[in-house]
Amino acid sequence: MKTFRLRIVSPDQVVYDGDVEFVQFMGMDGSYGILANHAPLMTATRPGPLRVRTADGETTMVVTDGFAEMSGNVLTIAAEAGERADEIDVARARAAEQKARDLLANRASLAAEDALKAEDALRRAMVRQLVGQRTGGSADRG
User: Fold this and answer.
1) Residues β-bridged to residue 91
2) What is the pLDDT of residue 139?
3) CA distance 10 to 37
4) Residue 57 lies in domain
């Protein structure tokens, strides 16, 4: 199968950089599936799982809000954060979910911007838990 280059970067690290056969991720208008020689593309990403298939098998990661660009047979995803499934601390993600839910329970006392941040935090925490639990992320790392 033909391959293309995938680069996933966040402000503090290169999450992934390698040749892949297929990538699936969440864009603002739905799920994208990318194969080699895909047409040029630019889209915003949403927090969600990112599936990667290489010659060695399939893996799942989590990426948050950002942008994806396919150009010259290179898919670059620049996200606020990215994490491999086996690095996910599920217990920490549960705690982040609870914190966000607690904040949102008092939505009336929050500024609009703080409510939006709490909603984003809740989405990220839930995606991290989903991917971590499905793929064996740590349940007790701290």
Assistant:
1) none
2) 46
3) 24
4) 4-85
The two three-digit tokens of residue 49, written as one number: 């799982």
**What pTM was computed for the model?**
0.73
What's the pLDDT at 38? Answer: 97
Q: Do 72 and 95 have their domain in common?
A: no
Q: Domain check: are 47 and 72 in the same one?
A: yes
Angle 112-135/90-105 helices, nearest 10 degrees?
Answer: 150
User: Distances in Å between the alpha carbon of 125 and those of 82, 112, 114, 138?
Assistant: 13, 20, 16, 14
pLDDT in tens, 79-111: 988 888 777 778 888 888 888 888 889 888 888
Return phi, psi of residue 89, to 5°.
-95, 100
Query: Looking at the domain assignment, is residue 61 inside a domain?
Result: yes
pLDDT in tens, 48-60: 899 999 999 998 8
Check residue 24 and give its pLDDT: 97
Comparing CA positions, the residue from 102, 129, 98 lying closest to residue 114 is 102
DSSP letters spanning 75-105: EEEEES-EEEGGG-BHHHHHHHHHHHHHHHH
What does the buried/exposed string (b/e) look like for 121-138 if buried means 16 or more CB atoms within 10 Å of the residue's CB?
Answer: bbbbbbbbbbbbeebebe
**Same domain, yes or no, for 18 and 55?**
yes
